[in-house]
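Record now logged for everyone:
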Amino acid sequence: MSYCANASRYDQMQYRYCGNSGLQLPALSLGLWHNFSDGHSLSSQRALLRKAFDLGITHF
């Protein structure tokens, strides 16, 4: 199964500068700390990650 990212994913997300580096990060990020034996399937984890990316979250 292939994945095609939402073309407008950067339009709604607010971005902020990270210090004086010039790097812009999304106002919202998603923590993906590895949780051993959490019981979630790989497909549900992948769906969550793709949905976040489609909404403009690029910092994990």
The chain has a mean pLDDT of 87. Strands lie at 15-17, 24-26. Residues 1-60 form one domain. The two ends are 23 Å apart (CA to CA).
